[in-house]
């Protein structure tokens, strides 16, 4: 019932649109009253004058829109419709309301009756959405059927050129554009009007009247047993036979159901190409004009009975439904593809943001490494300056010691000066040890930096491998996406190449940091050697140094620098020892 309602709504929509003269989407109530009354008449629905007047009573609301008319149409007309009305009469009524407003007869090569049939076929093939249109696939299907009915060859290239010039802003043609397309003879060149009219009538009979096959055959009577020529019309559940093909004088029906069957009979009684139709209560003997016609009729009747057993609709309706489902499937696949493309685009943007974040992190790491290198170089320069200063001081001290040894008269003063210089040397040695400790800390810092760079490099390599695997997975997902994603993959490869170059730069910086670490290590070894030499020198002169202990109660000597650290006896003893060592040297 839902399919019948949809078919009726399409014809009613044309009528409602024709009554909307100013294209405002609304129709006056008086016109809708007349339309509703006519619909009840042709659809054989009982009139309800009270409901009609109540729904369309005069008030200040003005004209009624299509949406406002639909509740009344559904409740009081369409829900009461039974399949007992004349569909042609119903379509003819709706056609009469809209034809004068929209059809330009002077430009058409077909009659108004043919245009009406095309209008009905349009309602059958159009999409179930408003405003009604027929999509290019259904246009091609209809034009092919017409071409086959005219006995011509289908020109696919001509239709492809027509599709190329098709307005991209529209999804299909309106009914009046379709009538103009068929009526202007663009796809029926070389055919006369009668041939085109017969082709339209044949397609109309098949698609609208459900005529699966028709033609003249001989039928054997049940009472007189005589053979009479009749015009047979095969429909999904009935075979009707008439006196002639004008269908005015109907002689009878053969009701078909799933229990019927059709059999071929041998020639007899001077009749050839015989076959038998067995029904529940009757059998019918029929003679075709030739063997080909006989086989065609047997096959058509057998297919009809088989469809009745399966409960399937007629072939053309089932094919129409399959085409609609295929278009819905293709549309869903396109929407899914668009959704996947959007997801890929979002994923690509996220990857770009991640790569930009990685690049910034790498730049920050490089800046930090440069800052650390700058600090290390500054520390190295300071250490070199400090070591140079120490060497200069050592030379100065050696010169002073030589001058003190040369001057025997000031030997004590030189000795005291030497002690003070050695004390300074101890302080400097401690500073050198502190510098060595600081250098080792710098070495540890450089090692940690190197370890962090290695860790970051490993992490980035893992991320790059992951991205690379994801990129390969996306490439393997579908071959159809390969071409569309080629540009995106090139961008990713470029970003990947840049990241690899950055990793190589990090590797180079890590090697440079390692070389610098080796240089600092060597300098530390040199500093340690120098410290050891200082210790050796101090050990050679440790005889000149003594720990500070409580002094003697005896009077101390007074020197230019204050009270002496030795008594007179100790001083004489150390002077003798010093002279002995001097003599042995």
UniProtKB/TrEMBL annotation:
Its main location: membrane. Keywords: Cell membrane, Cell projection, Coiled coil, Cytoplasm, DNA-binding, Membrane, Nucleus, Phosphoprotein. GO terms for molecular function: DNA binding. GO terms for cellular component: cytoplasm; lamellipodium; nucleus; plasma membrane. Residues 316-530 form a coiled coil. Residues 210-306 form the PH domain. SUPFAM superfamilies: EF-hand, PH domain-like. Pfam families: EF-hand_SWAP70_N (PF25530), PH (PF00169). It is found in: Cell membrane; Cell projection, Lamellipodium; Cytoplasm; Nucleus. The SWAP complex consists of NPM1, NCL, PARP1 and SWAP70. Phosphatidylinositol 3,4,5-trisphosphate-dependent guanine nucleotide exchange factor (GEF) which, independently of RAS, transduces signals from tyrosine kinase receptors to RAC. It also mediates signaling of membrane ruffling. Regulates the actin cytoskeleton as an effector or adapter protein in response to agonist stimulated phosphatidylinositol (3,4)-bisphosphate production and cell protrusion. This is Switch-associated protein 70. It comes from Delphinapterus leucas (Beluga whale).
